[in-house]
Write a structure and sequence with these properties.
This protein is of the alpha+beta class. The chain contains two helices and five strands; from the N terminus they run βαββββα. A hairpin with a 6-residue loop joins β3 and β4.
């Protein structure tokens, strides 16, 4: 019997609001985050993220899925990496609300991000 590979574990510490703005993915219903990575991922891969937000020592565990991939040498000098979609549920909703509260007015900005 084939077992699926264990999800990779990524620790992502975002230290500044501008970096959080660039990485946050509000287009996903539950929210999501961009993770710079040179590793090879496929859409739908499970990824376990320990996420730290600016000004906080707490790490938020997220069992997400790869929802898109930015390949090496992407257009507009975009950083290679993966977009992780947060799973459905109250923990993801709380994390999304916390991120959006931290970002505040930045969410309405039209500055380019690492995301779609």
């Amino acid at each position: 019997m084939l077992s699926s590979p264990r999800p990779s574990v990524i620790q992502l510490a975002i230290k500044e609001k501008s970096a959080l703005y660039a990485a946050y993915i509000p287009l996903f219903a539950e929210g999501g985050i961009f993770i710079p990575s040179q590793r090879d991922y496929k859409l739908g891969d499970d990824v376990y993220v320990l996420l730290s937000l600016p000004g906080e020592s707490e790490r938020y565990p997220v069992a997400g899925k790869v929802a898109w991939i930015t390949p090496p040498k992407a257009a507009n000098n975009r950083t290679q990496g993966i977009g992780i979609r947060f799973p459905e549920g109250p923990k993801s909703q709380a994390l999304r609300q916390k991120i959006e509260a931290l970002l505040g007015n930045l969410l309405a900005s039209d500055r380019q991000t690492q995301t779609i």
